């Protein structure tokens, strides 16, 4: 197997010792196993890659050296740690969507010639990765996407990956391999002051398309927000239909506002709309007139429901209500049905203050 | 009810405006013209109070207020210097945004499918102030506008139900 001489890129991230280590190890142990892995069912490849992606460098090395080590759990990986036996054997790693996502995004490893892109990036990710100009270089120093941002993964499975990739790319065609290397740029968004966009596999990596991709992602995020806002829009797939739905919704809302304002224009304005009159002393006259005593006991439960803040001023007023009202109860009884909601009481002569109180509560 | 929420701010402002409108003229009983006139005023008051109740700076609020002012001024055919200045300021803003739009659509046009542009223009007409924005900001404004419209509808519905018993 060819060894990656670790040439290239910035080459700063991997120390020489690590490279040697990996090289030695792979030469010793894994050639056969990897060939075995190549013949493993294709569907596992993705999952296996992704699981392995998470391995930080020291752990990977440890894995190689101590097969029984259970410390395969990468820091960010939510997946259960793959067993070393699996690693050796059938490569049946648990399929984890998060890992797959990261792998898909991470697709740098196909990395062939585009080393240039890496020079722009500030991430500690290994551009030595890109150094492997051809797929025949089996050992790649692949970055692990850990949130702790450990720079390199010296993964013996890198070799495996590269070989598998070779197969895949033979199948898929050569167009994709050139691109992916460039975009580890968005690695450490936390560390770096500007927003990075991760390139997906097979996507162009020049700055224009990057900016476009960032824009597109922004737009998609906002479309999602809009979908959540508009009821019944989340089921619809496809941008055009969602947009139509949004437009319909906005139109209906605007029409509703118009109808409601028409209603308010037509409503009988005898009632004082002013909320503040509730809490002023001179509104006592308003409260006296047209007061329905049956409302008072019904007021209390609502008052208690709505918390203490509104309770106190209402208590003051309600005490004042008691005296003048007593004479009116029999009159009001005919109008009132206590079982109904508070809204249903005497519409002709209700006090504005009560209205306002209730309106406030409802609002 | 949260005293500082958009809902409560809008509600208080709108109710105040409503009282003013109703107090202004005693209603000559249900003449259609009178109702229509009041309807226009109430709608304007609703839009205005909504625009004022919004805390964050938004393009559509400025556009709404500008439309209201220009409409009312056009009717009275009086243009004060301050109004002209504010209009000019808004025009400058929309011109600036149009320039931005031109520059960004060249790069962004690739991202948005071509068929989307037709619906986007329709959306621009609906959302006040939407003509001069790029697609990304347009979506943003639309989301905020929808949120405010729903609040407005809720409050107005409650008020209308409350008083129309």
UniProtKB/TrEMBL annotation, chain A:
Gly residues composition-biased segments: 1-11
Feature: compositional bias, Polar residues: 115-135, 146-160
Residues covered by region (Disordered): 1-21, 115-193
Q: What is its main location?
A: nucleus
Q: Which keywords does this chain's UniProt record carry? A: Nucleus, Transcription, Transcription regulation
- CDD domains linked: bHLH_AtBPE_like
Which part of the chain is the BHLH domain? 203-253
Matching InterPro entries: bHLH_dom, bHLH_ZIP_TF, HLH_DNA-bd_sf
According to UniProt, the name of this protein is BHLH domain-containing protein
This chain's source organism reads: Hibiscus sabdariffa (roselle)
Upper classification of the source organism reads:
Eukaryota, Viridiplantae, Streptophyta, Embryophyta, Tracheophyta
UniProtKB/TrEMBL annotation, chain B:
Q: Does the keyword Isomerase apply?
A: no
Quote the InterPro entries the UniProt record gives: IBH1-like (IPR044660), IBH1_N (IPR059002)
Keyword Signal among UniProt keywords:
no
**Origin: domain of life:** Eukaryota
**Domain named IBH1-like N-terminal: residues:** 4-71
Task: Identify one Pfam family in the record.
Answer: IBH1_N
Q: Which UniProt keywords apply?
A: Transcription, Transcription regulation
Query: Any transmembrane segments, and where?
Result: none
Q: What is this protein called?
A: IBH1-like N-terminal domain-containing protein
């Amino acid at each position: 197997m060819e060894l990656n001489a670790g040439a290239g890129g910035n080459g700063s991230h991997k120390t020489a010792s690590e490279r040697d280590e990996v090289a030695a190890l792979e030469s010793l142990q894994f050639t056969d196993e990897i060939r075995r892995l190549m013949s493993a069912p294709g569907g596992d490849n993705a999952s296996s890659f992704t699981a392995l992606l998470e391995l930080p460098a020291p752990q990977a090395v440890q894995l190689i050296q101590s097969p029984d080590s259970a410390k395969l759990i990468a820091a960010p990986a939510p997946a259960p740690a793959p067993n070393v036996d699996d690693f050796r054997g059938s490569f049946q790693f648990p399929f984890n969507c998060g890992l797959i996502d990261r792998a898909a995004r991470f697709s740098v490893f196909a990395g062939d010639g585009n080393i240039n892109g890496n020079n722009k990036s500030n991430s500690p990710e290994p551009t030595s990765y890109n150094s492997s100009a051809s797929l025949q270089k089996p050992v790649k120093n692949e970055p692990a996407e850990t949130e702790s941002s450990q720079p390199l993964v010296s993964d013996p499975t890198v070799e495996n990956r590269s070989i598998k990739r070779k197969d895949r790319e033979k199948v898929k065609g050569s167009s994709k391999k050139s691109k992916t290397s460039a975009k580890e740029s968005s690695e450490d968004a936390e560390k770096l002051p500007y927003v990075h966009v991760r390139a997906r596999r097979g996507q162009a990596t020049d700055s224009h398309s990057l900016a476009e991709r960032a824009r597109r992602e922004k737009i998609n995020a906002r479309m999602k927000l809009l979908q959540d806002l508009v009821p019944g829009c989340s089921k619809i797939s496809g941008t055009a239909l969602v947009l139509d739905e949004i437009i319909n919704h906005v139109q209906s809302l605007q029409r509703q506002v118009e109808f409601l304002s028409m209603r308010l224009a037509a409503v009988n304005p005898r009632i004082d709309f002013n909320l503040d009159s509730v809490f002023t002393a001179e509104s006592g006259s308003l409260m006296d007139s047209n007061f329905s005593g049956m409302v008072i006991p019904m007021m209390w439960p609502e008052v208690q429901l709505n918390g203490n803040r509104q309770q106190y001023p209402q208590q003051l007023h309600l005490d004042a209500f008691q005296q003048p009202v007593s004479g009116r109860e029999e009159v009001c009884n005919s109008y009132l049905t206590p079982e109904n909601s508070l809204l249903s009481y005497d519409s002709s002569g209700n006090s504005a203050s009560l209205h306002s109180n209730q309106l406030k509560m409802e609002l | 009810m949260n005293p500082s929420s958009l809902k409560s701010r809008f509600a208080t402002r709108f109710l105040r405006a409503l009282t003013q409108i109703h107090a202004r003229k005693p209603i000559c009983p249900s003449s259609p013209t009178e109702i229509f006139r009041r309807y226009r005023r109430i709608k304007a008051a609703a839009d205005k109070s909504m625009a004022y109740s919004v805390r964050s700076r938004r393009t559509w609020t400025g556009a709404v207020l500008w439309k209201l002012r220009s409409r009312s001024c056009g009717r009275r055919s009086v243009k004060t210097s301050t109004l002209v200045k504010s209009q000019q300021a808004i025009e400058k803003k929309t011109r600036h945004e149009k320039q931005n739009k031109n520059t960004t659509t060249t790069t962004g046009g690739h991202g948005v499918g071509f068929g989307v542009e037709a619906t986007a223009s329709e959306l621009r007409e609906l959302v006040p102030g939407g003509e001069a924005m790029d697609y990304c900001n347009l979506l943003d404004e639309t989301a905020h506008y929808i949120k405010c419209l729903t609040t407005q509808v809720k409050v107005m519905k409650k008020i209308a139900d409350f008083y129309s018993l």
